[in-house]
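Comment on this:
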Amino acid sequence: MSQSHSHICLVNALYNGDDVLGDLMRDLNSTDPSKIKIPALRKVETWLKHTKEGEKIMTSVFNELLQEEVEKVVEKKVEKAKEETRAAMKAAMQKEMKEEMEENKKQTIRSYFIEGGRDNAFIAKVMHTSIEYVQNVRNEMVNTPLQV
C-alpha cells in the first residue's frame, strides 16, 4: 500500500473563532464576495457571481445538483408506489384466495347434501366448521333455485 502523504482534516463549517480558521469558515460561508477576506477566494467568488462565464458555470452546477435531488425524490416516490402496489396486489390476492377457499368449502358441503348426507354435525366435523355454518349452506341451497 503506497502512502500519499495526504491527510483528511474535518472542520465544523459553523466554527466562528477569531483566528485564521474562523476567517476561512466565514469566507466559505459568505454569499457576498465583498465580505471575503482571503483575496484569492474573493477573486474567484466575484468572478463566479459577477461575470457571464461564472454565472453560466454556477447555473450549470446548480442545475446538476437540482436534477440529482429531483431524481432522488422521484426515485423515492416510484419505490413507494411500487411498494404500495405490491401490498395492494398481495391483499387482493389473499382476499381472492380466501373467497375461493370459502366457495370451495361451501361447494364441498353442498356435495355432501347432494349425495344424500343429512347429518349436519357429521358434515361440520369433517369440514372443520360449525354446525351453524353447515346449516346456513343448507338453507342457501333450499332458497336458491337450481341453475342449469
